[in-house]
Structures are given as C-alpha cells and as structure tokens.
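Hi there. Long-time user, first ticket. I'm pasting a complex I've been working with (about 598 residues overall). I'd like to know whether the download I got is complete or cut off, because the file seemed smaller than I expected. Thanks.
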Amino acid sequence: MSYSYLDIVKIADAFPYPGPGGESTINDYVHFRVAAHPYETLGFILPDVADTLKDLPGGLWISPTTLAMRAIGRFRLLNKWRGELFPVYGPNKELLFSIEPSASPLFGVVVYGVNMTAFRWSGGSNNNRQGSLQVWVPRRSSTRAKFPNMLDSSVGGGLATGGTPWSCIIRESEEEASLEEGLVRCAQEVGTITYFYVSGEGSGGESGLAQPERSYVFDLDLTGFPPDALTMNDDSVAAFELLTVPEVKLALGRKEFKPNCALVMLDFLIRHGQLTVEEEPGIQEISVRMHRKMDFPLR
Amino acid sequence: MSYSYLDIVKIADAFPYPGPGGESTINDYVHFRVAAHPYETLGFILPDVADTLKDLPGGLWISPTTLAMRAIGRFRLLNKWRGELFPVYGPNKELLFSIEPSASPLFGVVVYGVNMTAFRWSGGSNNNRQGSLQVWVPRRSSTRAKFPNMLDSSVGGGLATGGTPWSCIIRESEEEASLEEGLVRCAQEVGTITYFYVSGEGSGGESGLAQPERSYVFDLDLTGFPPDALTMNDDSVAAFELLTVPEVKLALGRKEFKPNCALVMLDFLIRHGQLTVEEEPGIQEISVRMHRKMDFPLR
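Hi, the file is complete. Here it is re-exported in full:
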C-alpha cells in the first residue's frame, strides 16, 4: 500500500489541533509548568505519568526527578538513558533548565534537532537543474531502540544545551557519515521545521507521549562527489544509499522513513521543486503542518 | 529606523492569533458562510460592512451583491474594480463560487496568488554558491492604487478562477517583466506561503479588512543572464533593479517592500541560506507565521 504525502506528514505531526475532536484529546494532558512562569505551559504530560511524578522524591528539581523516574524502572523510555542534557526555554528564549533527552517525552517539552540532506545533481549542471537529483539516505541499524531499520536524514541529531545548530551538524556529520568539518561548513542553513509528534509504534518506549520538535535544516550540495562521499562511521547507520527522487518518493509512500525524517525529506523535495501542487494537491497543508505554531515557549 | 525581519512579517501576517488579546479582535468579525455549508466560515467580514450587506439587493448571490456594493459607492476598495473572478473553495477543495477580486477583502475570503523571484549568481558558479547572489526587484509605479512606489516580487499576480499557478506565472512574467514563456518554464515551483493580512496604510481602500492569502512560490535561476533580463512591459512597474542580498536586507529593514512581497523575499533568503538563525533569532517564528494554519477551507 502506498500512502499520500499528507498521510505521512500526519504521522510526524500527529498531535491533534484545537477544534472539534482535538480539544478533548488536548485536555487529557497535564500541563507542565515551573514556579518561575506559572502561566506558561512548557510541555504536556500524560495523566498516568503525572501520577507517578507526584509520588517521586526530587520534588521540584528536574534532575533528581528524572533519576528517580529511571530508578523505579517504570518507563521503558528511560532504559535508553543518554547521559546528556537538552535545553528547555522560557518565554523570553532564556534557558530555564536542561533535561536528560530520554526523559523529554515524559514531560512533553520541545526538543531541538538538526537535519541535513546531502545531495548531488548527476549528469547535468546544478545551474540548469537538468540531470538527476540524488540524495544520500542512510538506513538505521537494526539494533537501534528507536525506529530500527528505517530510513533517515543524511545526517541528524539532537541539540544539547550549549550547542549550536552548526556545532551539532558538524559533530553528527563526522560521527554518522564520516564527513569532514571543512566540507560540512559548505552546507546551507535553509530554515526550520516544527511539528508535534506523538510517540507510538517504533518510538521505543511508551505511546501517546507529546513530543513537540523543531529542527534546523541544512542542505549539503555534493554535486561532483562520488557515491561513497558519505560512509558509515559508527553503528547507528547500517548503510548509506544514493537514491534518486523517484526512489525517495517510493520509500516515502511505503512509510520507510523515520517519521520526522520524512518531513525533512518532503521539505527538501518541495524547496528543490521536486514535489509540486500538480503532483500533491495537499502540498500547502504539508507546508503549514511542518511549520506548526506551538503554544509552548520556543527558543 | 530599521525594523527586524520579524516586525516585517507581522505587517503581512497581522491578523491576531487566538489567545489572550487576539480573541476579542477575532470575535469582532462577522463570519461569512454560505447555505450549502452552514458550519464552514469562508471569511471574516467587518461588522459595518456586514451592516451594509444586509440592506443590499442581490441577497444570497455574490455577483449582484458585489455589483450593488459598487453602485452605492461606499467602499473605496471597489473603485479599482478589476472585472475578474477569483475562486472561493469549500471544505472539499471544490469551487463554491467566484468573486470580483477588489471585493474579496470585504468578505474576508482567501485569495490565491503566485510570486516568482528571479535571481542570479554573479562572479562564481551556482554549484558552490560562491560569488554574489542578486535578485531582480521591481519598484511599483507611483500611480498604482495599492502600495505605490514600493518594492515588489520579481513577478507576481492573483490567481483567477480556472487558472493554474503555472498559467498565471507565465502570463504575469510576460506582462510585468517581458519574460518569455520558454524561460519561465525553467522556473522551479518551491512551495507555498500562507499568511493573514489586515488591510491598512497603503492597501488603497478601507482598513481593518481580513485578507487571508496563500501564494504559490517560484524561483527562476537566471545565472549568466544580463541585468536587463527582466524589463518593464506595462505601467505597473516603474523600473527593475538588480539588488544584492545586503541591499535586499536593507530595503526590507526600511519597510520598502510591499508587505506580502517582503514575506516572499524572506522565504527566498531563508531557502537559499542567506538568512539564518545566527543573524535573525526569530527565524523559526518567521517560518511558522508565513506558513500559517487557516481556519477557512483552502484549495
């Protein structure tokens, strides 16, 4: 079965919108707030997660709380503890606190990331966009907790506290795709996508968790480079493939891409004139949904 | 005085968002509905416009109504009667009816358009994005009713009933910029922008009218072409200039661009890596606002 591109967007941007049908689901979640900003909701928490939180030691402090949540062993999500810290921002874009990323979905706070698409024009010049556009697409390892075996962005990763989109994409490009810093610095920063995921099948943990996400998007034009310009460097990637646009579209229609990476790929195809309203009448709704307005403070 | 890019976006996307402050303004408008879809709001009408509508002959039929509105001479907006028909769509993307475009803002219905940015890379190859990016920018004639003397997209226009984005951009490119169809067909269709304007200073008519708009965006890469590749053809354009990116940014900061064309230009700069979060921390909000979710049925 093949899915429409809009169907695929709805997998990554699954959190209901306000209005008929959506309001009741939204009201199911408990609002996560901090004392310093009593009227700002920083995230949405599932009611049974909130119940567990009440009984934990650590009280108002996020690090002891997440450690205690890990210690009780109730949340499968926390089995993949990463020992990193991701930022949570306040209404003036100030850093409020940092949180272990595996615990972010339990609090429903916004997570920031970077995604880069490495591509080349083959058999024509880039100027006239003749020839064939090809994209480097990695397949995730079968051993990964989240979305094993699915297709991914050329390079991607989460943005830790203190990191910048550039420092993050440079590090991840080396770690995941053996790309040298000098080359990655030729990438173009081409905007952001914002969407509201809800954990489910493949997320590697509890379902129904609110996961608002924003990603800084990069393009890396490797026209003239050989197919092995990106190669695996660690065990997160099983293999890289150089896919043509029709092959990318086929894989999208089969839901082979990790949900948020499908958005990155659709944004890439739209920006490069490879997916137009003539082919996908839902393209405008796709553009709106992947630039979703969030009611949380954002960086 | 120089304005931030986000300030400029807020001029084009001026209609308030729901929530504190916005709700009361939104509730000021009368909902425009048709009998076939009693629960779908097609547009927002200012209360005093709605009062006038009640007293007009023509009743439920849009064409006699707009003609009667024109006849009473109460609305300055209708002095620029265009004698064209723009589409209004229903919840299933079906054409419900067509409306004279000068009257669209009185009913607050969504208007569709096209905007193309013609650009070239000068002094470097397009592949490595070295050299200088330049954009053809027309200045609107001083005699135009709407936004005289302001800077515009390279080419732009409204989408009439029965037209397609491509047929529209091809016709407007010939009419406004003397570009031949064969060249325009090399353009790339690179997405849509959606925003909610409110008529004000420069709109050439009543203020406070709701003007939800969606534009199909095209890029035309004219690297290697001379500066006079675009030339005026009718009296809508005073002159074309080939501006560098710093010149475009300066003009944006001085509010020299027609509001919606400022959005088109910002979208172009972001997609081409010329405006990044390092320069404009509000870039993500800009992306969200120019892909605004509308609560009207859309094509």
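A couple of notes from our side: The first strand of chain A starts at residue 30 and ends at 32. The mean pLDDT of chain A is 92.
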